[in-house]
Amino acid sequence: MELDPDETAVIVVDMQNDFAHPDGALYAPGSADVTEPIASLVERAADAGASVVFTRDVHPPEQFDDAHYYDEFDQWGEHVVADSWGAEFVAGLPADRADHVVEKHTYDAFQRTELEGWLAARGIRDLLFCGTLANVCVLHTAGSAGLRDFRPILLADCIGAIEDDHHEYALEHAEWLFGEVHGSDAVSFA
Prior knowledge:
Structural class: alpha/beta
Largest sheet: 6 strands, parallel
Organism: Halovivax asiaticus JCM 14624
Number of strands: 8
InterPro entries: Isochorismatase-like_dom (IPR000868), Isochorismatase-like_hydrls (IPR050272), Isochorismatase-like_sf (IPR036380)
Pfam families: Isochorismatase
Shape: globular
Domain Isochorismatase-like: 8-182
Radius of gyration: 15 Å
Keywords: Hydrolase
């Protein structure tokens, strides 16, 4: 699959210590396993002139104090707390190659962020998704992209999960409902 780098962005979802480092609060071994393939993809895309966007899940300590129903700390325990080691990008990723970093406070990187406007202002139409977790933030962000008429392409070998079943479910659901699934080796830039 050949993509125009001027119209393409790699979206690296939440590759942070709490998810991708063994000492992280919500460590998923599948997330650590995709660090190297994501780093390679980011370098290749950036060298070709494609945009690179990193999302960073960040929760102020008081974010859910007044929550009626939606409370990630209740669901998952405290994680990626603002200004903590857990919220930092995991070592081994070329985060310095990012053209933009989106701080988000929920599963969907489009929810109450500038991501859609940033992409649209640059004429970006095709989004290559990688990162973690497959069935949570990657799935919700990619689905939201599809609803906004971007082309979501999920790169199976660059997406981490807690369990293999979660990875398989997310990719099958995405391909069935709103996007495409490929391996990163299938991607080239025109």
